[in-house]
Amino acid sequence: DPAISNYQHGRMPKGSSLPGRQGPFGEPGFMADDDEIRNIMRNFQSHQYGLDGTDGNLASRLGSDLGALAALGNASVGKLVHEQLALQLTLSKDSSRDSVLECSWFYFELMIKAMVEHLATANTLNAPRKHRFSDQFNDDILNMVASFTGEIISKHRKQGRITQLNSCLAFFLHDLLSVMDRGFVFSLIRTYMKEVTANITIMEPEHSSVLWELQIDFLRIISSHEHFIPLNLPQYGPAGFTSGSSSPTPSLRSIDSASSFISTMMGDRSSWAELSSEFRRQHFLVGLCLTNLFNALEQENGDVHTKSISIVRNLLTTHDLDPRYSEPDCRARVANLYLPVIGIIIDAVGALHGAAELQASRDDATTPIIDQITAQQIAGSAMFGTLESMRNTDMQNKPAKCSLSQENTRHLLATFLWVVKNVDNNVLKQWWSELPSERLHYLCEVLRITLTTFQYKGKHALKKARAQQIIRKPSDVKNQLEDMMLGSRNHAKEMMQRGASRKGAPPSPSIDGQGRRWNKTSFSSVPRTLPDSLDHAGHSLVWDPELEAHIEGNLATEVSMIVLDTLFVVEQVVSSTEHSQTLLASVLRVMLHALNTTQSTQFLQHLFALQRSLVSKYPNLLFDEATEHCAALCKSLLKHCSSS
């Protein structure tokens, strides 16, 4: 390659010199990093020719012998491979640019290995990260990432090559987190996210789906880092949170900024648990994933919903299986990083599958069909329907921004359940005590929808759902046929599909549950399906309905127990608020809904204990105010008493 030969002799190609690159000989391409050799060359020149080594025309004055010696010195010292790669990848144009895009995985891999080799050779593996590489190299990396980001945005419709470039760039930044200053790498990630998000915003929704998928894949790869949790600086609760003030010197400008400062600190008291700018700055990578989820729930694209929810769901699955976070205290600190998930779901409660049906139905489980005269006789009052108007308007004031499918709702609520299960109850109490009563109402609605979504439906329903899964969608068959026709021996495709898991590291949280990587392991590590087979999902395995029913039953019980524990925390919070009566009515509705859904006997024992506690604590609420709930409670208890 002519460019490589030029750099081997200490010269830069024409038109590729950059300002600030001149070395001690006045040559723009001189990049020797060995100070000792430079001093030896200067002393030699001064002794032989009486020169100070700063003359820009030194090459013409030294003669052929010294010129050869200088070239020999340059060749022996050489130029650092990773620095030259970063520079040339940024400056590449036209046909060379196309070649770079085609083989980007190779250059990124070579650059990472060259960087590590340089650190090992220079004995700087234990040096501070900020001083491992030169400032000029950092600038070149920044320019290179910005250049490739612009390439991805401008050519995002070219699915194959740009998808590969996007994934390779993400893996490159993923590896930089282990080598370079992480604050600098975060700035590179922010550059990519900012540019892609800005272009998604100005695009029409039907045209931005490709960029959405590229951004989500980028986040999925970045978040698969084995030290993802330490990179996000987990904390136990609000005590460890350091929020910036609204003014650099609020005490010196008390007249002008006192009101804004107080409103900021008082109005954003729960910023440690919400998806605020403070939270995103404190927990950068988690903030990016949750911001992506929040923005995705404002779209109407089902594929975007699925992938955004899958990032968070698979991250939590990885944390749950990680032995490093098996201790309850460690897991509680990990769960604190995902507290904004609760707020996101509360804000999107109207978009959950089944929310509209649960609210619109007049004969739902909370208020069974019962005539008004009987209800008055049971309750001993004529106030039936006092809170019915409030109940019917709870969800009407919360317009749905999108509509989630049943599967996406199930996965999203699974993330909600994992967080509320593992977070310390004192943290939840402190946060929820700061929430307005409206959001606590919506939280109770989320609990009701969760009970409906995960309730046990019996073996017949499981068999019916299994039969629907076996029926293949035409789009799935079409995609698999395209893969077969394109062939499975594509080199770049194989490199992209290599396993990502390192020995002892958690797996990459991919959409399909399989880690995909363009390096690290051999081709043979990925089990391959025969080219003429469409059975990629392993449907040939024997499906045991008894085992599936047993798993579903245990899952339904576990979910109901988590909801019951969360409801107990909510009851403790709302009992001390100003609008405790209306909020307690929402708590009663959740309890009644649980009584009228299919539950296990183990869960019913705990539910009856909560019911007795609520009746004992708030008899006036049940018998004097929320009399329609008293009627529903009596009917539900009688139904359970008559069951065998």
SSE topology sketch:
Blueprint: H1 2-8, H2 35-49, H3 58-62, H4 64-77, H5 81-91, H6 94-102, H7 104-121, H8 135-154, H9 159-176, H10 182-202, H11 209-222, H12 228-231, H13 254-267, H14 277-282, H15 284-296, H16 302-321, H17 328-336, H18 340-347, H19 355-360, H20 372-379, H21 388-393, H22 406-422, H23 425-432, H24 437-453, H25 459-470, H26 474-486, H27 491-496, H28 545-574, H29 580-595, H30 601-617, H31 619-625, H32 627-642
Helix pairs in contact: 5-7, 5-8, 7-9, 8-9, 8-10, 9-11, 10-11, 11-15, 11-16, 15-16, 16-22, 17-22, 18-24, 20-32, 23-28, 24-28, 24-29, 28-29, 28-30, 29-30, 29-32
Task: Explain what you see.
- This protein is mainly alpha-helical.
- Helices cover 63% and strands 0% of the residues.
- It is built from 32 helices and no strands.
- Helix 28 (545-574) packs antiparallel against helix 29 and helix 29 (580-595) runs antiparallel to helix 30 (601-617).
- The chain is elongated and about 90 Å long.
- The termini are far apart.
Radius of gyration: 31 Å
Structural class: mainly alpha
Q: Which percent band covers the strand fraction?
A: under 5%
Share in helix: 55-70%
> Could you say which overall geometry the principal axes of the C-alpha atoms support?
elongated
Distance between termini? 84 Å
The biggest beta sheet, please? none
Tally of separate helices:
32
Uncertain segments of ≥5 residues (pLDDT<50)? Answer: 1-33, 47-77, 240-267, 362-393, 487-516, 518-540
Total beta-strand segments? 0
Mean pLDDT: 74
